[in-house]
Amino acid sequence: MQRLKFPTSLMRSHLLKTYLWPTLCIALLSVSSLSACSDEADNSADKDVSSDVDPEGDAGDIGEDADTGPAACALQRDCGPAEICVDAVCVEAPACEGVDKWKSCLEAFTEISPDLARRASCDPDTLHCRAVCLLDDDCADDELCTDNGRCVAYDGDITGEHPGGDARAPLKAGVSNTLMNFPIGLSQGGYGSRMATNHGRYVESLSATDGIMEGMFARTFVLDNGERQLMFIRLPVVFPTMALHEAVSRKLQELTGKDWRESLVLTGTHTHSGPTRFWHLPGDAAVSLGSFGTDEFSQEVFGWMVETTVESAQAALDDLSPAKFGWEIVESFDNDDRIASDRWGGTPPFDDNRMLLFRIDDAQGTPRAVMVSFGSHGTVHSKNYFTNDVPGGIELGVERALAQEYGQFVPVFYLNENGGSMSPRGDHWGHESAERFEAVGHELAIRALPAIRDMDMKDDIALKGVTHRFPITYETIGYGPEEWKIGAIGKGSHNNVYNYGALNCLGSSEDDDPATYFTPPITEGCLPVHLLNHHRPASLFARSQISVLQLDELTMITLPGESTMELGWQVAREARDRYGVDPLKGWVMGYAQDHQFYLSPTNLRGELPVYPGISTPKAPDEYPDFAFSWLQGGYEAGLSVWGWKFGDFMVERAMEAVGTFAGADVEYAFNPIFPSQFSPVEQPKFPVDTSNAAQVGTVVTQPPATVARMTPIEFAWVGGDPGAEMPQAPKVALKKKVGAEFEPITSLNLRPYTNRQATMLTRMRNNGDNWEWVVYWEEIQNFELGTYRFEVEGHYMNAAGERTPYQVQSEAFEVVAVDDIAVTVDAESPLPVVRGVLGYAPGTQLSFDSTSDDRGKVSGNYRMRHPLVPLGQSAPLLADEDIDPSGVSVTITDSGSGVISFDASDITVTTALEAVNGRADVPVTRFEAEAPGAVIVPGTYQVEVSVTDAWGNTGSSTIEVTVD
């Protein structure tokens, strides 16, 4: 069956533009022959199939060997592949022509039973109609409903005991930082604008990556109080999935003999530039669903994700040792929106302005790990380079501050909170791209470090966790049989409703008037899932899970998707009102345990959140009904599958989880379900090309012999195929010459200085038969001078198909000081007073200059020079840090003869905040030289100012001044 690929021009950010749905509808008609776009359902069938079904179960159609009559059945799964269960007996199912011809099955089943019609599909294997399962209840006791509506035996074990011991003991903790195993060339999850076809072996519906801006690590910490172990794993991905959580839990169960499903929290930072293809999208959908921003599912990539995540978990368990733990919630930490801001334009302002911090120490009180949590997005970067985006910049900024404070590397974990309605900031100062990551991280570190430094640490804490799994269907959410009626696209489903949900129901439209809202049926947008998935449930949207945990006195509630701030508060408030959970000691966090897209309220009402200093101006009750609702529209509503009632549904499921955690007598709305499990998909392994051993290690581009600070350079060599170079890219270390040897150095967070840190960009390019690898490197104004070289450790596939290591070194190069400090002398200063401004020469923003033979080519600067000044402006020489009066030389001459030379005591240097180019609070460094008693007679003079900063950088300027 042909599948539609979206042209790039039809994509924007996460989803298709609203006005493109009619175009998409026509395209769907061309591949599926559905009357999906008509205003009225076409009830005619291609042929009369209703006569194929004998509702009385006549045994005459069973065959000569079936002398016992038709088989009895209680469930559809009790019947054979080409049969259906009708009136408790199995009968032959109507024939159909293909998976996309489900409409004939719906019409045939409508004549028999509404339940059958609701579940009608065409089995592509038997070419007979079948009734899909919706719930695990539709399957046998040992089966779950998965694989787009099929009953499959659950092959996990959920009867094991929790990880932990028999008695409370002093706390232990383990921490790991594991490089993830995937190749450059794999697609990134997050943006539909990256849609492409035939772009490389590792991609299907999105463009291939060309490089990486920093190493992508899986980070894990585990806490053990003797009775219970809890584990948190943070992945640099757009979101985790329930299937990934289950696969990791099973592997841990094999390793430890314990059931981790209620003790493992799996989160994603929500970078939109991390590895993807591990989400179990239907492989035979009517369109390439991966074009929306996650690419198609790959069994091999899923395996890489599981293996890497388990490796990180195992490393943390192996690291268990005596520890102390502390936590603190910093209220109103970002009321000025310098870190993140409310982006949901369809609703009134709502931001909880909270930051949660964890600190894990060794027994002696030295930090081993820090966790930071608040709501944001990883959406600054959109190019074909892997990066953890702003979340990675946050981690790096705090790591640098901790390295300076404690003299060692301390890994930092960013766990997203209710970031569905939040955008990253850092643009207030004008920074872009990678320097913006650094700017946000620097600012966050300033706000977080005091609480981290003064945190109360304990070695005896309570640990507890529960995980609540639940089914998701049209009916379980609470829609009536004809309540969520289909709008313009996709009529023809059972009852003409969105039985399996819908996407982009409000397009990009927002109702920014709180007194009005969209009302169903939604006619703008709304692409039905039944149209995309051939009238079958998309299993990844049919179940989910929520965890509730206790760490000391803190209660954490996870939500499986992009929770908005509004929904996060609703969950916290309900937990308080129903079960006494103190919201000031509570934390609701999305992007954990699974992903159900955006999670927004049905109709948030009530009081203003109780968080001290909150910037949200008014209580929800002060606005009209549905002011805070899915029905206000925008991205946050459009990229959600289950419509306006899903918010309240999710709140109720969270309360079932909290009630279970609290030991209350909970009346569950649904029967227990299994964890997520999908049948393995048979796909060929990705190939790995062999390399010419004689060529591997050949240097293509050497660094210049001398390199000035703040000047980017490249080093390139012939390496291996990207599949052989996994994990990610060849390791490139920068080493400094000390005596006769080149020795390792560290980056600012005190990790080894390699391309695994945010120190250099690494890309690949294919040059005929050779894979060439390039590092793009730049250092800032105070980088230590000296002689350096790059040293590469990589791998290639030899002619025998063996992965073989190689090494290569660059020629040595000398890092020298810059000689272009910008010295601006004020020509209007009345001599003998000389005034001016000191700054480093402006840089240029990083540019991605893709060419046909070098898709990842870049130019410009990428390192931040000052947290308050972007690259396009002159960064100040900070008074008393970069420069003092002794570094400034001022001379007034007349025709080459000295008139006045100023001593250091005659010169002042100050840095103050000023308005520059319309932006307030920009640091500017000014100098003033004034010699007491000096006299200047009329004439023409040359004013010469030269500067040498604390790092050896120099600059000068001479102007001519006429004194009348």
TrEMBL record:
Signal sequence coordinates: 1-35
Reading the lineage from the top rank, the first entry is: Bacteria
Start-end of Acidic residues biased regions: 51-65
Region described as Disordered? 42-65
Q: Does the UniProt entry include the keyword Signal? A: yes
Is DNA damage tagged as a keyword? Answer: no
Keywords tagged on the record: Signal
Q: Under what name is this protein listed?
A: Uncharacterized protein
Q: Which organism is it from?
A: Bradymonas sediminis
